[in-house]
Specification:
two-stranded antiparallel sheet
């Protein structure tokens, strides 16, 4: 038993991926994942909570293209759909476009992203890895409807490195974000990261 699962449960997962790499500069892959999990039914009368099968399917298409020794483009589109007896059919999608600039003879690296997402609920949220400062792991959840953008700059000089990252979510259908102590008034949620590393 665990969160949202009030009885022993079981499930399975199937994943298949096909990768096509015709050259050193281009890689394309498609991925399909099917999950069967069991969760609490939403039709519970709060006496005995029954569990039900929850089917989730994800389809992803990803393209990475190296323009030259400095620039790399990455494009991704992913779809998700969830079916369960106690709720209506739900779906979601996300599109991300990344530009990465890493010159060999210049002390500045740059990573940019613009994303569009549209999901029916938090249950159909989608995750996408984002570049960040050293040792910082960022895989935010994209849900509801809106856009996301961020940029990351790394500047290296002598025995130091500086990372500066700014990201922002802009929701189209929200007047507040989150709840409780984390509640934000308005449709905009932003984050800022600054990191400095000195080598001795």
């Amino acid at each position: 038993m665990k969160y949202l699962v009030d009885a022993p449960s079981r499930g399975h997962e199937f994943l298949s991926q096909v990768t096509y790499k015709p050259s050193k500069t281009l890689e394309v892959y498609g991925r399909y994942r099917l999950q069967l999990r069991q969760k609490n039914s939403r039709d519970s009368d709060y006496t005995v909570t029954e569990i039900e099968n929850v089917f989730q399917q994800n389809i992803r298409f990803n393209l990475a293209y190296t323009l030259n020794e400095f620039y790399t483009l990455k494009s991704r589109v992913e779809f998700v759909q969830i079916d369960r007896p106690s709720n209506t059919h739900e779906k979601g999608m996300i599109f991300t476009q990344d530009l990465i600039y890493k010159p060999k003879s210049f002390p500045v690296d740059l990573a940019l992203r613009y994303a569009l997402f549209d999901t029916d609920s938090y249950d159909t949220r989608l995750y996408s890895f984002e570049n960040n400062a050293l040792y910082v792991f960022a895989v935010p959840a994209y849900y509801y409807q809106g856009s996301r953008a961020y940029f990351l700059v790394r500047y290296s000089f002598r025995k130091a490195d500086i990372w500066f990252r700014y990201g922002v979510f802009l929701y189209n259908n929200r007047s507040t974000i989150s709840s409780g102590l984390e509640e934000i008034k308005g449709p905009i949620k932003s984050d800022l990261t600054i990191q400095i590393r000195f080598s001795i």
